[in-house]
Amino acid sequence: MRDLEIRLSNQPGELGRLGDALGRAGVSIEGGGVFADGAGALAHFLFADADAARRALSAAGFDVREDRPVVTQRLDQARPGQLGSLTRALGEAGVNIDVMYSDHDNQLILVVNDGVRAKAACDAWSAPPARAAGREHTYAVDAKWTGNTGKGTAGYRDYSRDHLLSSGDKPAIPGSADRVFRGDRARWNPEELLVGALSACHQLTYLHLCADAGIVVTSYEDHAQGVMREGPDGGGSFVRVTLRPVVTLAPGADRARAQALHAIAHEKCFIGTSVRFPVNVVPEM
Are 180 and 249 within one domain? Predict the structure, then answer.
């Protein structure tokens, strides 16, 4: 695949004339776009057979100015921040993007100043994160029910949902069920702990990334919210969690980079990548 840069007149019928010339030569356009520029227009089109396209267009009187190879990359459209993450990786590799568009297969098409570096950067970006072989981390938590009021679980209303969560010498967390499930609203319930774990994981990952990038954060708070939906069989599951971090930066900090780091933190958060429901991040800088 190669990209042709074509200069057009900015007048009715010009693009139709281009299409007719390609059609007569049996050449298909795989992707691209046209951008008006005063009296003229600049087109960038992707071709599987760029030589045939160039011959057909030149014969029809079109000014074909550039014929360049491209780098293709497929993004995960369901994950916000993919474009920012990829282009940042290209920038850090010293690659400048001259033209960008999508082809008919929903792939990102990049015309760059250094195809070799761009290909290496794209391959590294799309590769699974490297992990030390066999490296695992174990986390032990003890849960003790303290809600036996004398009858045990003789009936749904006969026992308390109170329990204690502990781990080593850390202070125990007093837990219960949600109030709608006959729990104690003064205690943490499992659903709140899950939302809290997602919020804390994103926060810690984000602060780490900012420190590595030389961005000074002076304040961070999150107003997270999770939505759980009950099913007709008495079960239920979370359908989404939304994190709303409010970040304060030191004067002179790169605001755009700090904003973009939220997408990377979302991709790297251990807890966020472990759940099956969507976790949306809506930051405020």
Answer: no
Amino acid 27: pLDDT: 94
| 166 in any annotated domain | yes
Pairing of strands 217-222, 63-69: unpaired
Asked, for residue 25, whether it belongs to a domain, the answer is: yes
| Domain count across the chain | 4
Q: Which of 267, 265, 143, 248 is nearest to 193 (CA)?
A: 143
* Cβ contacts of 78-83, under 8 Å, gap ≥ 24: 79/267, 80/263, 80/266, 80/280, 80/281, 81/260, 81/262, 81/263, 81/264, 81/266, 81/267, 82/263, 83/108
Q: What is the DSSP letter of 157?
A: T
Please state the φ and ψ torsions of residue 129, each to the nearest 5 degrees: -60, 135
Give the CA distances from residue 10 to residues 14, 36, 39, 59, in Å, rounded to whole numbers and listed in that order. Answer: 7, 7, 5, 20
Residues 243 and 168 in one domain: no
Question: Is residue 71 a contact partner of residue 110, using CB atoms and an 8 Å limit?
Answer: yes
Full residue range of the structural domain in which residue 110 is found? 71-126
Is 131 inside any structural domain? Answer: no
pLDDT in tens, 55-112: 999 999 999 999 999 999 988 877 888 899 999 999 998 999 999 999 988 889 999 9
